[in-house]
Please model this.
Amino acid sequence: MLSYRHSFHAGNHADVLKHTVLSLIITALKEKEKPFFYLDTHAGAGRYQLSGEHAERTGEYLEGISRIWQQPDAPELLQPYFDAIRALNRSGTLRYYPGSPLIARHLLREDDKLQLTELHSSDYPLLRNEFSKDDRARVDRADGYQQLKSKLPPPSRRGLVLIDPPYEMKSDYQAVVKGIQEGHKRFGTGVFALWYPVVLRQQIKHMLRDLEATGIRNILQIELAARPDSDQRGMTASGMIVINPPWKLAQQMNTLLPWLHQKLVPAGTGHYAVNQIVPE
Model:
């Protein structure tokens, strides 16, 4: 089943969290001169038109990126993320939102490499066209989880793997754990970043227990909630699980999350948290 289209949700509070963490990890990897590899297992279309039918129908970006990208008191740590957004919106009007592949493309250097994978029949051609002139990138229509076996370890032995499935099926919560286990077995020094939605808290608790049971060390959890947990339909929060996080990441997110929560959740509901769920 491949009905999910991220274009309905582009730029929402979950994207803000995911892409803030992504930009901080990439910025940290760039502190060393040696090139690195970026693998995006569920890359999407790459670029999303916020005035398009899908985004306008939900309006989720109005409660996400629209609230923060031009705030004068924005923390300096957000500038790499905001720079990637400004690169698509040079007029100063927020017309497009960059998905994770375009944020990575903007932040990566000339010698770094991108491997992007998307299965959706509508999104894959858009992604391929977006990167058709970028020699650093390879775009495949393939199973993203399979890439964790076939593309790792990268020749550079440095890299970031972003795993961001649609969670259309309950089995995705188990599939991501199995995928991380396979990828980590091949590339134990790599940074793995897993995005997850909180729809039912029990699913996340099970996923975290399964991750801990793998024996993988150094696992950081970052979460931002717009609403309290609920048994009703809909996403209340989202998070990032980062394996082998850059050493500054926890501190950076502890600095950013209070500001993000204040701007994105002005009613003061929900929560934010940074937890080292498995030590080094």
